[in-house]
Amino acid sequence: MKFIGIDLGWSSGASGLCCLNWQNNQLELIECDRQQSLNDILTWLDTQISPTEPAIVAVDAPTIIANPTGMREADKLTHKHFGRYHAGCYPANLSRPFAQKTVEFGLSLEARGFAHAPIIETQKLGRYQIEVYPHPATINLFKLDRIIKYKKGKLAERQLELMKLCQYIVDILPSLEPSLNLSCGTGILPVSSGTGILPVSSGGTGILPVNCDTGILPVSSGTGILPVSSSNLPEIPTSLATLKALEDKLDALLCAYIGAHWWYWGRERNLVLGDRTTGYIVIPQGK
Hints:
- The protein has helices at residues 38-48, 73-82, 99-111, 134-142, 155-172, 240-265; strands at 2-7, 15-23, 26-35, 55-59, 115-116, 127-131, 180-181, 207-208, 219-220, 270-275, 279-284.
- The protein is an alpha/beta fold and 287 residues long.
- The strands form 3 sheets. A 7-stranded mixed β-sheet has the order 5-6-4-1-2-3-7.
């Protein structure tokens, strides 16, 4: 079973893409990428999943919109449940410029056999699609008091916040059920616990170097988030463009994990806001 995460560019800009595979009772990272057009995204998807292969495609975008104006019920419920964490979602309706693109993408997935799955039989193989929203997912999975604000602000502020997100992914997702194995393979966070540890100045155990060229940030192996100063190792992205590229891939990774969490636990440990008719969002609840 594979789990595809798509951080869809709603109107313009590239989309982050991630593929996880369920093998040996854990999730393994297969690939992270970015693509621009819907055709390119679907081509990438077709290379990851054969026409009959079971998979969930988890999309951070409103793929079902029925309301001409205003907000979907699912959008309203994110503000009700997660507004105090600053995790209410952007309102979607058919008059928005992005509506045609996001709805068309959902229909393209349906044409490939990915049925909407606001209800699912746990761990049953099949071809499904769901809408997800990473911000409230991080609140529950990482037990945060507010969202990690890596999408807005000055470059230095966003760098620090994105480092925090990397830290949580590396520290927490491998410890959850289902577990995400980041110790092997290639992609966004191939972390090795045995090599490449740098000395640090604030007392931690070191920093694991990870490759920014593939969408990866250096992440502390202990507590706290520390900068890498070595000139022979990848640096934190130093421009808004490279930061945005990393952000897209990390969001796609979170989307893919949410899809796996939904397949593994169903409604036992997930919240579904909205419904199949008016639009829905799947959010992990954790333990």
